């Protein structure tokens, strides 16, 4: 049963990612794109966790943690770029 | 050792010459004559041997691979030339003492003169063709430098370059010819080559070799059509003209004909090529000499003509003709050198060489005039002078030549014509300069006799002309004989160097030439008028124009090809790769290999689709730069997910961290750049690029497919096996990085460090004006450091450090390691910069990133070197398990220290790079309006 | 693994997946940037949280070891999501992204 | 799976090459980045595509080839250093020429045909 | 295992690390330490040359891992020769740099030493991927060095150089991947063995990989059509950097020699002499292009930069033909041309410093200072470069000509080389006569004094060409032996059997 | 030397220690020792980066607040989910919320709370840190939102940060 749930979830998250990419491409404004990217990062975290569950290993958890950290910094940098131009000043 | 000494003494003298130059002109002239005198003294004892037709060879090994040796040879031929070189050289040295002015660079002059003398001796005495080649080109080089001695004169520079181009170029042809001969014979030693004449002449490459060798000889000896450089070489100081361009260097070509006579001569090809070239040159030189108003020009073309005569004689291929040629070499050298010196005196004393201005010098310098007149008579072929003798022999040989049919008339007619011209221009030289009214507006007036010692060399040469002319057998007979036997390489036929051979056809020819010449001279104005109808070609201008045109063409061609367009260069590179890999890949046949395809799962397929779409959008929308950047992030994210999906957790983490730092970096740069790319490539260009890109992409797809579907085995089972027991870690990738292939990693962090240092250096003094607002024209927000961000950034740093420690420590056994840990720390610090600004963050960082980089590299290196102490190679790792109370058992591996080095280098390098860019921002220097909270 | 935990894990997974999907739907469907901002900050974050929790439970059962790394990630996401939203909202206001018609109140000048 | 992976690499290469051939520094850098993604994936895949065989001893029954992973790690890091350098160099070029053209030129009038394409496109 | 093999890598690395720490140290101290490092590199290179001269292969296995599993350094005659060439050139350029060219930023010495380290790794490594890493080390350092010294002129050539080499690195990785994906190994000796038994699609993949690798090496060696980035980049670089770069194209040549003779050599079965049929015509066209470029050059440095292209063509043509005599000739020529070109870059810079705003452009200008000294240096360099007797370039050229004695190759090589020499002579004589002789009255805007150290190093580099002639006998004996060693691949692959340091040593 | 053996930011050290235990996947002797070492060491290094010391006066109120937060997050998510899925268009409002809190950390916590809970996102904090701009996804009036925030979150926070 868990396996079924797992694959359904993977399907849902993948679908979510696709929808996010759609928004990302659609825009229309830069903040929309960054928001979609940020969400995509979160989806990626979910996918990594799910991969760990499929494989029955926890080896990929740190990758998920890293996505969280990097996604945040990336989003912040992009946000700052959009409103301020210089990311580091 | 004595023969090499002869050659090398002048070079030694050349080295010393600048020193003696300090002592004045007399000192250096004396010093310069020493090598020549010693050389003469060294050669003297050989005379007995040589007179018997024997040959002395002294040989030393140099470059056996090449067949090049230091071997020198003294036989009659080389002796004849060596004596010419040394004796006339001595006279020129003496003459130059008075010719040169005290302010001139006499050191350079004598040094080059001696270099030339040595090179010339080298040519004539080398017993190895390659060695001769070396000296051959050296004479071209020294000649170049001597012609351009007065570097401030444009004519001198151009004449010099022209001479170098022609003789140097001919030298290259000669080189090729010699190499071919060497290959045919199997040796470059003269003995072997001269003995292998039949072999050479029978070889298929003989025509090529002969043509190339003759090219060398003809260019050097100014044979038609390469004669044009010689008159322009007369821009050189007159002693140089006398020495190089009449008596010696230009004789190198005919020397070569003589030297290789046994090896190359005696074929029809030789006959036609050499004799016809000689004939053409003989006539052309004589004709033009008549036309020259420049004293030295006249002499120069007369030299061309005489060289043609000698060449023609060698070309005839008969033994007697060859002997006549050798005889004329001596005769021409003596009378022409003396004429040049006389011309030099005239030039020196009047300040001009224009015969239209120089008239009636008999009144001012009768002594010089007398000498010049004797020498000119010899040139004209007046009996009792040496020129007459060899010309007589020439006439005789021209008659003896048996050409088929009407052609038989050609040589004698040419000979007579040339003789007429020779008489005419000699008459002109004498009459125009020393008589013919009064001088016309001379720069130096009144002219008078030169210093005593300046005339001595001329006197000696003129004396020689007379001596040889009157007592040929006594004076040069033995020398000619020795030379002839050396040249012909076999029995010398009977010949007679008599003053008078009776009333015969050659004498008739001489008489015709003499009176015809006088007649021609008297009718010279008609001749000039006749010639004036043709357009005068200034070879120097033509040469310059040709060179300029070549340079121009080359420049334009280079400009076209080396267009400075990166797009083109990159295109070429990509196309080169495609071209190289194309054929093998089309040979692949089936792209799907033995292991076949594995099934696709939907999430992976969707992820792949996302990646493909994102990449394409990145490319299509690249002109909207920020959008492209966001899409690039998606690509990066999916790539790292892909790594995770296909069993590479370490790669996933690394890719992700690197990607974010890269994006930050790109945004830092994008700040200063336009946010839009203008559309500036044409549609065909874009289509071309798309085609190239698609080809590359399809190629990579096929390669990947072919590769992935084929089974393989690698060395990696070793790593999997030894990772834990011998590397002390379960994360095999990490063990490879810090142990099995730790050296790669050392290189890798070096790259990182170098990049950061390079970036820092590059941006040190760079000033960029940041835009005041974004691409849409909105001014930037006031709020540099949003409060919420600053607040969340505070705990991030310590937490990230902790995570770094965690990732670092587990790296040897689990995904992680120094590199990823370093990136986490870096990103946390970057977050501080983003959130609170440069000034705020830098205040809190007490170390220089340079030092962090240095420390990191040092850790890695020292850790690697640690094993050296124990007798193991660099980077040999060790590990052990330690048990502590409470903590329990834990593993300590030396590789961890290495990894710590990686960690530190990554932090230092990443931050140094990013901060260097951040520092460009004007806000970083002045505190922003709103202090960070 | 006990049946209960398996049920729990499955339920959490499905819940997480659903929220993630809803978040994405929201991002796609909502009318303007400011409304779209709500979707990921809440739904998606919670969705991932649920999936994390299922992972914690699963591995705690499976490896007989309490797995807390996931919790850390969740906490991290919850901590940072508002800040990201804040920065992006500020960026949007700076750029002058117009709110959907009918929005009361106005975004601030930046 | 292999075909899909190959297509991914092909796409990355093609887009990377296309951008590499652009005239401004920024797209070139983006192109180089895409290209290096493709190259890294390619190099990685020389160990073939397997699921759940991460080369961590004790974590699986079979392990994938770890060597390509180590190589790619090195390549990623080096690629990062190189990208950073080229980004900064393009900044330097921008500073020196006040233009971000890859050939450093400035204020060259755009091609005529381009104006037309622009006009047609809009 | 001989620890000396490590020295040419570890010495510059440690030296560079020291430089990284010395950001605020006085320049004299930094210079002293940096120069001391370079001297030590030279010493170690000479030691290795002496070691290698016995004709055996020595390896150094990092981490004590048996090849092909670990990375090994392999010392043979070729590697030792390259090390010495690099060290000599490096030292003299470094001395020149210390004369003032190193000012401007503090990273110069560090980058310089890293550059030497990268070069030395490239020459010593016996591992294909490590060769990639070495390339990257030397490239990134060269990027930094290229940009040293400020000014806007070098940015764009630098950018081109960097971007093209980045693409080159990508191609390198792809080819390494293709080769590994079939052979499953990276060690060159092991590769040489693995390649022999290939067939079918495996063979074609490796063939494509090998040919792509040739493109990469061709790019590094600057062979047509991949050479156009070079002239501007080199001409614009700071003089000592340009001089050091004289060896950079030789790395590409070295890599071709190493990889293509060992892995794709005569024994490689169907892959024997891979790509060499391409290389030969390309080398000749490169040579021709170089000559045309030299003829049209507008400045001395540009002229010398094109001379680099000329040497590349001259060098690779005999390499492509691959005979022992040709290889030996190529190596002799390599020695000659590296020093000559390096020296000429320095001389051009000295000339430039003495001619005010005319700099090194081939135009009429007021008479320069120290004309005699500089013109003699230039003359010697030009004679050596153009291949006129009696200097080393001539010997290199006749050795090359001599190595090809029949067939169409002979016709092509001889004609291109000789006509090329002829035009080069014209180019040099034209440039020299204009720059040194065609002067106008007037005064120099920027009178500068020649610095003794700088002049001495430039002179020494030029003088090496004379030394090469004097020592031509022993040198050709060495290059002959090197060529023979290169052809004996069995001896190289035997390194796989060399035992490691025993446990518990 | 001994005076360095203090914990300059005790709350941070607690946070770090706890985090380490989470990361180590289970408490053990090694993890405690390491956790202690890191909890001491890291703040020594980073203390400069957190100049403003948060002063929690009533720390015991934190868990209750957190609990309420988690509860609200879950509720919020369901309500947003419903809104997303329903065809009815949302009724967004920009609300300027007057802040009573002064401490930046406190404001940040409030703003974050707002962002995580029903239908609201903190869009901006005014320069003078007196007003919070809140975007509400679906609300009847601005005042309703202001009251809800004030009562439910700002009051407890003010108690904690007194
Ligand atoms: Na007259
Ligand atoms: Na909320």
UniProtKB/TrEMBL annotation, chain A:
Q: Which organism is it from?
A: Marinobacter subterrani
Which InterPro entries does the UniProt entry name for this protein?
Answer: MrpF/PhaF-like
Q: Where would you find this protein in the cell?
A: Cell membrane
Coiled coil residues, start to end: none
Q: Which GO terms describe its cellular component?
A: plasma membrane
State one molecular function term (GO).
sodium:proton antiporter activity
Pfam families the UniProt entry points to: MrpF_PhaF (PF04066)
The transmembrane segments are 6-22, 34-57, 63-82
**So what family is this one in?**
Belongs to the CPA3 antiporters (TC 2.A.63) subunit F family.
Q: Recite the UniProt keywords alphabetically.
A: Antiport, Cell membrane, Ion transport, Membrane, Transmembrane, Transmembrane helix, Transport
Q: What is this protein called?
A: Multisubunit potassium/proton antiporter, PhaF subunit
Q: Is this entry keyworded Transferase?
A: no
How is this protein situated with respect to the membrane? Multi-pass membrane protein
From TrEMBL, chain C:
Gene Ontology molecular-function annotations: sodium:proton antiporter activity
The record's annotation in Pfam families points to: PhaG_MnhG_YufB
List keywords of the entry alphabetically: Membrane, Transmembrane, Transmembrane helix
Output the superkingdom of the source species.
Answer: Bacteria
Secretion signal span: none
Residue ranges spanning the membrane: these are 6-28, 40-59, 71-89
* PANTHER family in the record: ANTIPORTER SUBUNIT MNHG2-RELATED
What protein name is recorded for this chain?
Multisubunit potassium/proton antiporter, PhaG subunit
Organism whose genome encodes this protein: Marinobacter subterrani
- Recite the lineage of the species: Bacteria, Pseudomonadati, Pseudomonadota, Gammaproteobacteria, Pseudomonadales
Automatic annotation (TrEMBL), chain D:
Q: How does the record say this protein sits in the membrane?
A: Multi-pass membrane protein
| Spans through the membrane | 6-21, 28-50, 70-91
Keywords assigned: Cell membrane, Membrane, Transmembrane, Transmembrane helix
GO cellular component terms listed in the entry, alphabetical order: plasma membrane
Biased amino acid composition, Basic and acidic residues: 97-114
- Main subcellular location of this protein, as a coarse class: membrane
- Enumerate the Pfam families for this protein: Oxidored_q2
The UniProt annotation puts the region (Disordered) at: 97-122
Where is this gene product found?
Cell membrane
Protein family according to the UniProt entry: Belongs to the CPA3 antiporters (TC 2.A.63) subunit C family.
- The identity of this protein, by name, is Multisubunit potassium/proton antiporter, PhaC subunit
From TrEMBL, chain F:
Identify its membrane topology class.
Answer: Multi-pass membrane protein
Top-rank lineage group of the source organism: Bacteria
As for subcellular location, the record says:
Cell membrane
InterPro entries documented for this protein: Cation_antiport_E (IPR002758)
Keyword Protease appears in the UniProt entry? no
Q: Which GO terms describe its molecular function?
A: monoatomic cation transmembrane transporter activity
| Gene Ontology cellular-component terms listed | plasma membrane
Main location group:
membrane
Q: Which UniProt keywords apply?
A: Cell membrane, Membrane, Transmembrane, Transmembrane helix
Decide whether keyword Cell membrane is in the record. Answer: yes
Membrane-spanning regions, if any?
A: 12-42
Q: Name one Pfam family in it.
A: MNHE
- NCBIfam families, per the entry: PRK08965.1-2 (NF006518)
**UniProt record similarity statement:** Belongs to the CPA3 antiporters (TC 2.A.63) subunit E family.
What is the protein named?
Multisubunit potassium/proton antiporter, PhaE subunit
């Amino acid at each position: 049963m868990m396996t079924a749930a797992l694959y359904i979830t993977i399907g849902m998250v993948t679908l979510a990612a696709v929808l996010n990419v759609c928004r990302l491409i659609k825009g229309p404004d830069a903040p929309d794109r960054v928001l979609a990217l940020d969400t995509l990062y979160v989806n990626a975290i979910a996918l990594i966790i799910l991969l760990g569950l499929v494989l029955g290993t926890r080896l990929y958890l740190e990758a998920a943690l890293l996505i969280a950290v990097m996604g945040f910094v990336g989003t912040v940098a992009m946000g700052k770029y959009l409103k301020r131009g210089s990311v580091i000043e | 050792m004595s023969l090499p000494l002869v050659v090398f003494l002048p070079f030694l003298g050349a080295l010393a010459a600048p020193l003696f130059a300090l002592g004045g002109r007399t000192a250096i002239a004396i010093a310069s004559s020493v090598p020549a005198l010693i050389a003469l003294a060294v050669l003297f004892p050989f005379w007995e041997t040589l007179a018997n037709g024997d040959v002395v060879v002294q040989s030393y090994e140099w470059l056996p691979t090449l067949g090049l040796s230091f071997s020198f040879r003294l036989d009659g031929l080389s002796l004849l030339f060596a004596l010419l070189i040394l004796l006339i050289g001595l006279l020129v040295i003496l003459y130059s003492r008075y010719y040169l002015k005290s302010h001139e660079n006499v050191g350079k002059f004598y040094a080059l003169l001696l270099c030339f003398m040595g090179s010339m001796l080298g040519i004539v005495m080398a017993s190895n063709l390659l060695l001769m080649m070396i000296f051959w080109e050296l004479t071209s080089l020294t000649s170049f430098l001597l012609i351009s001695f007065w570097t401030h004169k444009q004519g001198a520079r151009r004449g010099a370059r022209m001479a170098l181009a022609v003789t140097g170029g001919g030298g290259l042809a000669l080189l090729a010819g010699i190499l071919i001969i060497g290959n045919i014979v199997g040796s470059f030693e003269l003995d072997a080559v001269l003995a292998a004449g039949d072999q050479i002449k029978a070889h298929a490459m003989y025509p090529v070799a002969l043509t190339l060798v003759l090219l060398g000889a003809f260019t050097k000896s100014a044979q038609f059509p390469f004669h044009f450089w010689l008159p322009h070489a007369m821009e050189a100081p007159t002693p140089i003209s006398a020495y190089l361009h009449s008596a010696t260097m230009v004789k190198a070509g005919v020397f070569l004909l003589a030297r290789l006579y046994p090896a190359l001569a005696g074929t029809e090809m030789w006959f036609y090529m050499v004799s016809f070239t000689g004939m053409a040159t003989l006539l052309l030189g004589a004709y033009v000499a008549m036309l020259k108003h420049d004293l030295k020009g006249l002499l120069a073309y007369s030299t061309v003509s005489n060289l043609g005569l000698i060449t023609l004689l060698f070309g005839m291929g008969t033994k007697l003709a060859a002997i006549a040629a050798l005889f004329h070499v001596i005769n021409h050298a003596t009378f022409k050198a003396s004429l040049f010196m006389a011309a030099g005196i005239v030039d020196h004393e009047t300040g001009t060489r224009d015969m239209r201005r120089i008239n009636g010098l008999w009144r001012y310098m009768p002594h010089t005039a007398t000498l010049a007149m004797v020498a000119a008579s010899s040139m004209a072929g007046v009996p009792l002078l040496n020129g007459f003798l060899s010309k007589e022999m020439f006439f005789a040989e021209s008659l003896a030549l048996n050409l088929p049919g009407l052609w038989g008339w050609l040589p004698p007619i040419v000979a007579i014509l040339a003789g007429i011209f020779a008489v005419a221009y000699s008459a002109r030289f004498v009459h125009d300069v020393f008589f013919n009214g009064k001088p016309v507006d001379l720069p130096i007036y009144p002219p008078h006799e030169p210093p005593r010692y300046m005339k001595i060399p001329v006197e000696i040469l003129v004396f020689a002309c007379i001596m040889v002319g009157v007592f040929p057998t006594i004076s040069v007979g033995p020398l000619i004989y020795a030379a002839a036997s050396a040249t012909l390489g076999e029995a010398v036929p009977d010949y007679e160097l008599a003053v008078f051979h009776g009333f015969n056809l050659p004498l008739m020819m001489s008489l015709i030439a003499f009176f015809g010449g006088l007649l021609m001279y008297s009718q010279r104005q008609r001749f000039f008028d006749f010639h004036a109808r043709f357009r005068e070609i200034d070879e120097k201008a033509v040469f310059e124009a040709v060179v300029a045109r070549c340079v121009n063409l080359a420049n334009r061609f280079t400009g076209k090809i080396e267009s400075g367009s990166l797009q083109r260069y990159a295109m070429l590179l990509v196309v080169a790769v495609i071209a190289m890999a194309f054929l093998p890949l089309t040979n692949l046949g089936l792209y799907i290999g033995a292991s076949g395809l594995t099934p696709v799962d939907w999430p992976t397929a969707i992820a792949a689709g996302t990646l493909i779409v994102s990449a394409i959008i990145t490319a299509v929308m690249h002109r909207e730069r920020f959008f492209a950047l966001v899409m690039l992030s998606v690509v990066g994210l999916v790539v790292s997910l892909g790594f995770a999906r296909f069993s590479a957790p370490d790669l996933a983490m690394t890719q992700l961290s690197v990607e974010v730092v890269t994006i930050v970096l790109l945004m830092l740069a994008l700040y200063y750049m336009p946010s839009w790319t203008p559309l500036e490539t044409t549609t065909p260009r874009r289509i071309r690029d798309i085609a190239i890109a698609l080809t590359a992409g399809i190629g990579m797809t096929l390669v990947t497919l072919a590769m992935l579907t084929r089974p393989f085995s690698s060395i990696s089972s070793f790593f999997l096996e030894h990772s834990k027991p011998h590397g002390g870690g379960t994360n095999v990738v990490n063990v490879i990085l810090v142990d099995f292939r730790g050296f790669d990693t050392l290189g890798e962090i070096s790259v990182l460090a170098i990049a950061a240092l390079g970036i820092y250096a590059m941006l040190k003094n760079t000033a960029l004006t940041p835009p005041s607002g974004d691409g849409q024209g909105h001014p930037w927000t006031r709020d540099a450091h949003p409060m919420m961000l600053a607040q969340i950034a505070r705990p991030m740093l310590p937490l990230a450090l902790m995570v770094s420690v965690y990732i670092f420590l587990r790296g040897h056994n689990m995904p992680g390691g120094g590199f990823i840990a370093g990136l986490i720390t870096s990103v946390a610090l970057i977050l501080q910069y983003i959130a609170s600004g440069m000034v705020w963050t830098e205040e809190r960082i007490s170390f220089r990133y340079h030092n962090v980089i240095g420390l990191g590299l040092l850790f890695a290196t020292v850790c690697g070197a640690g094993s050296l102490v124990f007798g193991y190679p660099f980077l040999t790792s060790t590990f052990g398990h330690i048990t502590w109370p409470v903590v329990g058992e834990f593993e300590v591996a030396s590789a961890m220290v290495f990894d710590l080095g990686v960690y530190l280098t990554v932090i230092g390098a990443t931050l140094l790079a990013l901060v260097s860019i951040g520092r460009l921002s004007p806000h970083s220097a002045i505190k922003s309006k709103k202090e960070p909270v | 693994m006990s049946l209960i935990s398996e049920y729990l894990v499955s339920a959490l997974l499905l819940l997480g997946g659903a929220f993630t999907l809803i978040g994405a739907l929201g991002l796609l469907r909502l009318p303007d940037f400011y409304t779209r901002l709500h979707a990921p900050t809440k739904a998606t974050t919670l969705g991932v949280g649920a999936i994390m929790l299922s992972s914690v439970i699963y591995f705690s059962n499976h490896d007989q070891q309490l797995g807390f790394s996931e919790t850390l990630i969740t906490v991290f996401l919850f901590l940072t999501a508002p800040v990201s939203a804040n920065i992006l909202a500020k960026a949007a206001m700076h750029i002058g992204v117009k709110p959907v018609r009918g929005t009361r109140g106005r975004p601030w000048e930046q | 799976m292999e075909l899909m992976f190959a297509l991914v690499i092909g796409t990355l290469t093609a887009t990377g090459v296309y951008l590499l051939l652009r005239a401004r520094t920024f797209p070139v850098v983006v192109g180089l980045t895409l290209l290096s993604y493709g190259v890294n994936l390619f190099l990685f895949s020389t160990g073939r595509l397997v699921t759940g065989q991460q080369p961590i001893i004790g974590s699986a029954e079979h392990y994938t080839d770890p060597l390509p992973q180590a190589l790619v790690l090195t390549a990623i890091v080096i690629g990062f250093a190189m990208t950073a350098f080229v980004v900064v160099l393009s900044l330097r070029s921008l500073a020196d020429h006040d233009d971000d053209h890859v050939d450093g030129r400035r204020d060259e009038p755009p091609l005529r045909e381009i104006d037309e394409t622009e006009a047609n496109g809009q | 295992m001989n620890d000396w093999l490590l020295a040419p890598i570890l010495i510059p690395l440690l030296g560079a690390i020291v430089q990284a720490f010395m950001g605020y140290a006085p320049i004299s101290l930094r210079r002293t330490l940096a120069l001391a490092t370079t001297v030590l590199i030279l010493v170690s290179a000479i030691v290795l040359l002496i070691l290698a001269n016995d004709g055996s292969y020595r390896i150094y296995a990092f981490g004590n891992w048996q090849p092909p599993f670990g990375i090994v350094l392999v010392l043979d005659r070729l590697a030792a020769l390259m090390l010495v060439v690099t060290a000599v050139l490096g030292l003299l350029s470094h001395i020149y740099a210390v004369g003032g060219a190193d000012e401007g930023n503090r990273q110069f010495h560090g980058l310089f030493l890293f550059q030497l380290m990268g070069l030395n790794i490239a020459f010593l490594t016996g591992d294909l991927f490590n060769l990639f890493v070495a390339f990257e080390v030397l490239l990134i350092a060269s990027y930094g060095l290229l940009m040293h010294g400020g000014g806007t002129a070098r940015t764009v050539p630098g950018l081109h150089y960097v971007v093209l080499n980045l693409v080159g690195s990508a191609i390198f990785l792809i080819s390494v991947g293709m080769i590994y994906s079939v052979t499953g190994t990276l060690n060159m000796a092991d590769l040489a063995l693995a390649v022999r038994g290939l067939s079918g699609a495996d063979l074609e993949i490796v063939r494509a990989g090998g040919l792509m690798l040739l493109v990469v090496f061709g790019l590094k060696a600057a062979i047509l059509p991949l050479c156009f980035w070079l002239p501007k980049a080199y001409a614009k670089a700071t003089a000592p950097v340009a001089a050091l770069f004289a060896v950079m194209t030789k790395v590409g040549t070295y890599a071709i020699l190493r990889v293509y003779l060992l892995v794709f050599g005569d024994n490689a079965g169907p892959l024997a002499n891979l790509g060499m049929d391409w290389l030969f015509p390309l080398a000749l066209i490169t040579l021709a292009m170089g000559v045309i470029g030299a003829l049209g050059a507008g400045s001395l440095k540009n002229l010398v930069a094109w001379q680099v292209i000329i040497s590349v063509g001259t060098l690779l043509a005999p390499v492509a033909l691959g005979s022992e005599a040709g290889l030996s000739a190529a190596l002799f020529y390599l020695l000659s041309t590296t020093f000559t070109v390096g020296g000429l870059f320095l001389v051009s810079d000295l000339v430039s410093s003495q001619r005010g705003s005319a700099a090194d452009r081939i135009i009429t200008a007021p008479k320069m200072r120290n004309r005699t000294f500089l013109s003699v240096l230039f003359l010697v360099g030009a004679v050596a470069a153009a291949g006129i007797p009696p200097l080393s370039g001539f010997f290199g050229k006749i050795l090359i000509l001599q190595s090809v004695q029949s067939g169409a190759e002979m016709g092509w090589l001889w004609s291109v080389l000789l006509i090329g020499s002829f035009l080069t002579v014209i180019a040099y004589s034209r440039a020299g006569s204009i720059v040194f002789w065609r002067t106008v009255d007037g005064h120099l805007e920027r009178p500068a004094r020649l610095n003794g150290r700088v002049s001495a190093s430039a002179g020494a580099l030029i003088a090496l060409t004379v030394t090469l002639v004097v020592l031509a006998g022993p040198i050709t004996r060495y290059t002959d032996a090197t060529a023979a060693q290169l052809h004996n691949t069995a001896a190289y692959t035997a390194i796989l059997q060399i035992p490691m340091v025993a446990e518990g040593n | 030397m001994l005076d360095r053996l203090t914990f300059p930011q005790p709350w941070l050290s607690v946070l770090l220690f706890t985090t380490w235990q989470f990361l180590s996947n289970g408490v053990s002797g090694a993890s405690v020792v390491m956790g202690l070492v890191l909890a001491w060491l890291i703040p020594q290094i980073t203390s400069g980066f957190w100049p403003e010391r948060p002063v929690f006066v009533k720390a015991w109120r934190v868990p209750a607040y957190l609990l309420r937060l988690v509860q609200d997050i879950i509720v919020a998510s369901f309500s947003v989910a419903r809104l997303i899925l329903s065809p009815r268009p949302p009724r967004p409002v920009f609300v300027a919320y007057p802040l009573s809190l002064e401490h930046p950390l406190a404001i940040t916590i409030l703003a974050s709370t707002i962002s995580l809970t029903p239908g609201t996102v903190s869009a901006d904090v005014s320069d003078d840190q007196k007003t919070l701009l809140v975007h509400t996804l679906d609300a009847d009036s601005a005042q309703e939102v202001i009251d809800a925030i004030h009562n439910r979150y700002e009051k407890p926070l003010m108690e904690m940060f007194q």
